[in-house]
Amino acid sequence: MTFRVFSALSVGYLAVGRLAEQGRLLVHSCFQRSINLSHSDGYLLSLLSGDFQDLPDAIRISVGDDWDWRYQARIGQVVTFRQGMLQGAGWCVALNGASRWQPKQGLSQAWHPALLTACRHYPTLAWQLGRYCQQNHSESDLQLLPDMEQRGALRTPPPRPVQLRLTDSPERLAAEVTALIGYGRGLTPDGDDYLLGYMAALWPWRQHPLLANHDATLRRFIGNQLMRTNDISRHYLARALEGHFSAPVCQLMSVLSSTASIVKVQAAAREVMQFGASSGVDCLAGILHGLRTLRSLL
After folding, report:
1. Using an 8 Å Cβ cutoff, are 278 and 139 in contact?
2. Alpha helical stretches, state H, the chain
3. How high is the mean pLDDT in each 10-residue block of the chain (298 residues)?
């Protein structure tokens, strides 16, 4: 069997810290262009081909079109990290020289002017979501926008509307979170991706006096329900609870807080929607729902 050596293109900022701990990982799951490795404490480290987006806990690597992780690795195989080298059975990844990915601007507290600017971008994002779904025949088990006609909308049951409001009681908020986590189709279910986008939209303004209680209560309920979804989706939601998101989501949130052009906003939204078969559109729909919640602060 030929031994393959890959070069790392970039390493996520959270992965850097975990890789400093020399240790042993196991293959958790394999896909054509990506693989997930698990640590003994449940931590997931992803290896992604170079055409994937940067993630906080991922290493992007240069692989050829002939490489398919489904045939090159098996669940449970041991992977070790020593002296800058991540090594599995028949392959290794050299991390020396790889760039470290970290959001250029943290999603820090911002107040009224930036909030007003972000909400003004809402029509552009909503139009972009509808157009993208129509062109790419995207489907979701959730109603992505209140007035949007969706593919498969006449099916039984129809796409589920999401009820998240700033004025929701803790009981109502808990019920909606329970209904959404693990709900829908996909490797990361529709409801999980929607909640992730919603949390991303609220994150920069989470300490606003009128939002803080809603945001904290929502996050507490999501944290308490994480075991109701699968390992991979649980990992992403747990990171979102701490304010860690993918490169496209971070970029979009940065663009929304600026006086960016419509073209730039549309490009950033496209990057978000291109993640997975439906995960990206669910996430953007959640961001739009978050903007609707934020508008009630104005």
Report:
1. yes
2. 13-19, 69-72, 112-120, 122-136, 170-180, 190-202, 212-224, 231-241, 247-256, 262-273, 279-295
3. 87 89 87 94 94 95 92 95 91 92 67 84 94 89 83 67 95 97 93 98 92 96 96 96 96 90 93 89 97 92
